[in-house]
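Private note to self, pasted from the team thread so I don't lose it. Backbone tokens:
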């Protein structure tokens, strides 16, 4: 869910994926451009500590990493995410 928000915030700052990866590395998070790409394309899950790192590097709160309308969608999204997460899979993009 956070991938598109990370992309939006990164692009607002005028950073490439490579630049964001370097900034994350300088902050202490071992990552790569490919990892940022996979996150933005919603192809990988995001550990909770990584949410903190992204928020700090992007200069936002962790709430800003989630879509604004998420609260109203929780009940409709939960069934598809619950099944996928229990199997360790990434749910389809919306």
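Design output:
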């Amino acid at each position: 869910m956070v991938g598109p928000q990370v992309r939006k915030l990164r692009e607002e700052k005028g950073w490439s994926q490579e630049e964001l990866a370097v900034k994350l590395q300088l902050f202490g998070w071992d990552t790569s451009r490919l990892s940022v790409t996979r996150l933005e394309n919603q192809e990988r899950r995001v550990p909770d500590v990584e949410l903190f790192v992204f928020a700090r590097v992007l200069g936002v709160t962790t709430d800003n990493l989630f879509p604004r309308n998420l609260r109203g969608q929780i009940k409709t999204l939960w069934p598809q995410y619950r099944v996928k997460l229990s199997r360790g899979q990434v749910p389809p993009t919306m």
